[in-house]
Specification:
Layout: H1 17-28, H2 37-44, H3 49-63, H4 66-75, H5 82-96, H6 102-112, H7 117-121, H8 128-143, H9 146-155, H10 161-174, H11 184-207, H12 211-240
Helix pairs in contact: 1-12, 2-10, 2-12, 3-6, 3-8, 4-5, 4-8, 4-9, 5-11, 8-9, 8-12, 9-11, 9-12, 10-11
Amino acid sequence: MTLTIDNSTGTQGMLSRDEFRAALEDALKGREAKNASFSKAWADGVLTREHFARWAENHYHYVGPFADYLGYIYGNTPDRFTDAKDFLLQNMYEEELADIRHTDLLIRFAEACGTTRERIENPENMNAVTRGLQAWCYAVAMREHFVVATAALVVGLESQVPSIYKKQIVPLRETYKFSEDEIEFFDLHITSDEVHGERGYQIVLNHADTPELQQRCLQLVRWGADMRFSYTKALYDTYVAPSL
């Protein structure tokens, strides 16, 4: 597979492991989806169950194919990188085959908000920005070097989840009065994605072994964070702002 390097990253030497870790974390700063307008409205307690239903109908089409994204990365990962392949398989298993599929938990929450499985699964009910995020995830997973795709999707996207949901689960309980059973989707991902995010970091730190790969990883982490922030902001602009 041919790796394409954006000239805007410049020519830099190899970063040490500690420098690279700090640079990956810095690439997320200022772009976190927890600070987007929809997330802020959620935390402030101004949303309705109808708004959450629209969120779920979109979120399903972003996270629903996550095992598919990981499957493409797995197929692009050479056999000798057993740690990366094992992580991808475990992540896919947890998404699809563990005690309960993560998307079923999402649908349970969505139904508590007043929508239906049929509406959630219908791609007509996601907005254009969500379609763009889904397409970007597929494109990165299919086309990028496996370590770059891991940086984009696991570090840039998945590692943000605990910080987002820790901020959102409290008002779901205390302000919006959902039951623990209805919000299991969020509780589960606070724990699981903390583990996934850290393992993603370790794979990127271990296998981005050239300056070009390091810089491409940093670029895709920034892009991934930008994509998730834009997706979250578009939910507010599309579904919340017109109703206020």
